[in-house]
Every structure is written in structure tokens, then in C-alpha cells.
């Protein structure tokens, strides 16, 4: 029996099952590990150790929460929801975009802010 991920031979009794795949112990730990490259939170965690701008302010936390709840919202509506001035919102949002936490996208010709 060989690992379906790294093709390494797995000793009898040490094979692991994950999503219908047979994996060796190393790969199994790897897929279960929360520190995967494709996980945005892992990226965030990694960045939080390397830059002071990765620490969220109260307003940034509110913005992310609102984006999560709404699934995407127009900047003016978000500013209204959070009782922030559009300029403040823009500044906080720029930081979040830089941190790859949130982004703007076009929906039906309108700019909508949403989670990254
Ligand atoms: Zn493997």
C-alpha cells in the first residue's frame, strides 16, 4: 500500500484514511494541520508575527464581522451600518485589503466590499 499523496510506501496498519484517500501518517497530519497554505487564517497568523499592521483594530474587526454577516455590502451601506465616516471606512478597508482579509468586487455594476 502506497500513500496517495506522496507515493511513499506505508507500513501495514499505519495507513490513514482521509476523504476516501489512503495517506501515510505524515500526509495525514499534513492535511489535518490548520497551518495549510490555502487557509486564509493561516496566512493571517503567519503575517501577524511579521508585521504590526496585522493586528486588527476594533473598527477592522467590526468591518470583517459585517462583511461576514452580509456576504458583501456596498461601501456607503457599510459606513452607515458601522456609523463610520466613508473616509475612515476607506482607510480601515485599505488596511484589511493589504492584509488580504477583505476586498472589493464588482457586482451588477456596483462596487461591493466582501471577505477576501
Ligand atoms: Zn504520504
State the gist of this model:
With 116 residues, this protein is of the alpha+beta class. The protein contains 5 helices and 4 strands.
What do you see in this structure?
This protein is 44% helix and 16% strand. It has five helices and four strands. It has helices spanning 25-32, 40-48, 58-70, 75-82, 86-98, and strands spanning 16-18, 21-23, 102-107, 110-115. The protein starts with 15 loop residues before the first strand and ends with a strand.
State the main characteristics:
single chain, alpha+beta, Arc Repressor Mutant, subunit A, two-stranded antiparallel sheet, 5 helices, 44% helix, elongated, binds zinc ion
Strand content: 15-25%
CATH class of one domain: Mainly Alpha
What's the multimeric state?
single chain
* Share in helix: 40-55%
CATH superfamily of one domain: Winged helix-like DNA-binding domain superfamily/Winged helix DNA-binding domain
- Total beta-strand segments: 4
Largest sheet: 2 strands, antiparallel
Explain the layout of strands and helices:
Blueprint: E1 16-18, E2 21-23, H1 25-32, H2 40-48, H3 58-70, H4 75-82, H5 86-98, E3 102-107, E4 110-115
Antiparallel strand pairs: 1-2, 3-4
The structure holds zinc ion.
Zinc ion binds at residues 3, 5-6, 8, 23-24, 26-27.
Amino acid at each position: 500500500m502506497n500513500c496517495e499523496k506522496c507515493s511513499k510506501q506505508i507500513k501495514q496498519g499505519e495507513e490513514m484514511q482521509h476523504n476516501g484517500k489512503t495517506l501515510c501518517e505524515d500526509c495525514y497530519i499534513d492535511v489535518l494541520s490548520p497551518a495549510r497554505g490555502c487557509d486564509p487564517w493561516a496566512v493571517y497568523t503567519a503575517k501577524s508575527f511579521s508585521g504590526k499592521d496585522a493586528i486588527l483594530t476594533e473598527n477592522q474587526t467590526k468591518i470583517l464581522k459585517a462583511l461576514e454577516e452580509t456576504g458583501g455590502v456596498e461601501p456607503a451601506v457599510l459606513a452607515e451600518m458601522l456609523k463610520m465616516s466613508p473616509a475612515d471606512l476607506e482607510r480601515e478597508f485599505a488596511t484589511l485589503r493589504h492584509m488580504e482579509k477583505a476586498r472589493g468586487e464588482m457586482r451588477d455594476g456596483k462596487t461591493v466590499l466582501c471577505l477576501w
